[in-house]
Structure formats: structure tokens, C-alpha cells
Input
Amino acid sequence: MARSKTKLACVDTQVFFWANMKKSPPNDPFAVKRAINLFGYLEENDIRVLLPSVVVAEVLVTIPYADHLSVMSKLQEDWMIANFDLRVASAFARLKRKFLDESGKRELKRITEGSTKAVITADMMVLSTALANGADYLVTDDLHLLKLAAGEIETMRSDSIPFQPNMFDDE
Output
């Protein structure tokens, strides 16, 4: 009997940060619990977590430089880290080219309204990393990234897995 291919989920910064740093944003007190619930689902279903190097960089910004080596070592131990290599660069270029003509520029502006060029670039780097590495899912709560990913890859949000907060939770 043939063994099925292990599924791969590329995780964006927000959801990874909430699940692993245990900090919810003030306007979303259950973000940590939803993200932890989602990571539990991924593990229970043998779905490997792929972290783009740009996500690692965004996480490292929140950690003192003296701790970077130990944190990076732990990340590599626990997750599959994907570098921005030539395959990812090619996927990035393909995505970016979709928005070069006038109608593409209008579409990109509509999708990413309110976002900065730097954030859009980082989002496209995450998406292209997922695509180039054959991820089955992109896990993000970023609305702009969800729109960019439409038609490219199946997406999951932290609330994709049913979660019932306990009324006694302090978060």
C-alpha cells in the first residue's frame, strides 16, 4: 500500500508568534489559544510546519541579539526552515509579474490597501516560499496575504479549527 505524502503548512509570522511567544494582541485576547489549537491540529494530523526565513527574521526582531543563536537552533530543531533561495526567487518573480501591467497594479492596490510596500514584499516572500517548497497550506491571519494567496494555495486561519474559549480563561 502506498504511503500518502506528508502535508506541509507554511506558517506566517502572526500565527507562529501567537502560538510560540504566547502573546495575544490587545484587541484579540484569544489569538494565542486559537493559534495553539491550530498547531495542535497540524501536529495531530501529521502536517509539517514550514517557516520561511523571512518569518524567522520577523520573530528574531523581538528577541535580544545575544539569544539569536539558541533561538535559531531551537527553531531548526522543531520546524522546517525554508531559505529565500533561487526557487523562491523565481516564484516571487512570477507572483510580482502578475501585478506589473495597469490592471495588475490596480488589483494589487485593491488587495493591499492600507499596507506598506515593505509589508507587501514580505507577504509575497512568505507566499512564494510556500509555493516554491510545495506547501499544501498557507497559515495566516493577515487579510492582505490571504487575498494575495487566493487562487495560489489553500489557506488556513487560526480560527479554521473549531475552538471554544473557556469562560473562565483569563485571556
User: Anything to note?
Assistant: The two ends are 46 Å apart (CA to CA). The domain at 7-156 is CATH 3.40.50.1010 (Rossmann fold). The chain has one domain: 7-156.
